[in-house]
Amino acid sequence: MTKFIYQRIFHFNKFILRHNFNNPPKYIIFNIIIFLFLFGFASATVLLKHQSISNRLFAMEEPLVSFFFKNNNPFNGQTISNNNEDITIRYDYPKNIDFQKKNIIVIVVDALRSDHLGLYGYKRKTSPFLDSIYSSGNLKKIELSFSVAGASFAGINGILRSKIWSNMGYNNFSLQQLLKDQGYDINFILSGDHTNFYGLKSFYGNNSDFNYFLDGTTTNKYSDPNDDRIIFEGLNKIYEYNNNPSFFYFHLMSAHSIGLKLDKYKKHLPANANRLNIENYTNRYDNGISQADNYIKEVFKRLSSKGYLENSIVVITADHGEALGERGEFGHGRNVYTDKILIPTLIYDTDTVQYKNTDYATSVDIAPTIVDRLGLPIPESWEGNSLFSKENREFTFHQMSENYAIIHTKDNFRFKYVYNNKTQEEELFELKTDLYETNNIIDSMKIKYLNSLRNQLTNQFRLKPFK
């Protein structure tokens, strides 16, 4: 229902705006009516907050609802400050240096869990195209990958800025800025509303930073902003490859609950958005992944026909995961358990290139890996590691609003410490034997080790020290 309301309001409002410039009162009256309607809708949603069902619905993940709940909005109150250090680093970054001028293509499938792909061992054939290029040897797979957060804003910026949520700022030196400064054409072709959703577009860059930008708010062909066929509308506008290196960022919504899913991909039935039925919700989710896989295949085909694919590095990943009934939860946001931050990291590259770390990564490692692959220096302000490096980070950090996690990898163990700053609840899991966090072992862990994790948490996320 929320999806339907959002789409209808968005496109009817756009229609009114286009046709009533000479009659402003009509436009004002229309928006007053819409505001009153939304206020009533939000009030009704408030009532759900006090019901147990609200813990499963997770309506807060959608911009339409989160707008009305500023205190619960996961990005409200988050310090997103100017970062002068990044400005200096960008200014001082080497220009006009020799490097491998390969096309860089980043494909993000919103809410895609790696464990629902065939090449990660899933029982259903949801990803035949990705499975096939993985079998060919040209697709590298990171065995276990996590996003820095359970929501799009921080997940996407983790990929493009190599920053965890608590360190993100408007002036962070991004991958697309680095490549633009090296002479790349910059293209963002996106399904979904990236213009209005927490100001994502402003984090991608200014209009002058893009050679081409298209998202669900600027499409002229499709009525649904979450229709992934928008991607092909954008690709049709891209010129043939002219030997000048290009950066592409594609964003697909097929796997997301609000993504438009075409009937021809509805293989698993029944499939609806009923979050009280695990089978139905999972069927719909898997159908969306099959659609995304087919669209990725088409993206490869069209990029190849235009000459971009041959001399390219393609990264396929996600901004966050998706809960499918774990802990009675559906959707994403709110916390940083495995289901909500588990993502694929896949790199399409020549089979002769050897990535030294394919065991574990997070989304902040993607930008450093791309830059290192090109032979460019990794900016000092970036927090991730190149996957060409043998050095693994001992600690990785993850956040969703007031929920925090530290993953500590050393020797033969991988512990995950989870802390809820609102309730002060602590949990500890050993991910190598308990990836989906069913056995909280915090009571059996030595206090000295727990205190070391607590200190890491308070220092990294700038929280009050534990008493």
Structure in words:
The chain is an alpha/beta fold. It folds into 3 domains: 2-66, no CATH class; 95-391, Alkaline Phosphatase, subunit A (3-Layer(aba) Sandwich), CATH 3.40.720; 402-461, no CATH class. It has helices spanning 2-19, 24-49, 54-57, 63-66, 84-92, 128-135, 152-161, 175-181, 200-204, 230-237, 278-305, 338-341, 366-374, 447-461, and strands at residues 103-109, 139-141, 144-146, 185-190, 212-214, 246-252, 312-317, 323-324, 330-331, 342-343, 345-348, 360-362, 395-400, 403-410, 413-420, 425-430. A 7-stranded mixed sheet has the order 2-11-7-1-6-4-5. The chain is globular, with a radius of gyration of 22 Å. Mean pLDDT is 86; it is low at 15-19 and 43-82.
What Rg is obtained from the alpha carbons, in whole angstroms? 22 Å
Outline the biggest β-sheet: 7 strands, mixed
Q: What CATH architecture of the largest domain would you give?
A: 3-Layer(aba) Sandwich
Q: What's the total helix number?
A: 14
Main sheet strand line-up: 2-11-7-1-6-4-5
The pLDDT mean sits at: 86
CATH superfamily of the largest domain: Alkaline Phosphatase, subunit A
Q: At the first level of CATH, what is the class of the largest domain?
A: Alpha Beta
Strand content: 15-25%
What descriptors fit this protein?
single chain; 467 residues; alpha/beta; Alkaline Phosphatase, subunit A; 3 domains; seven-stranded mixed sheet; four-stranded antiparallel sheet; 14 helices; 33% helix; globular
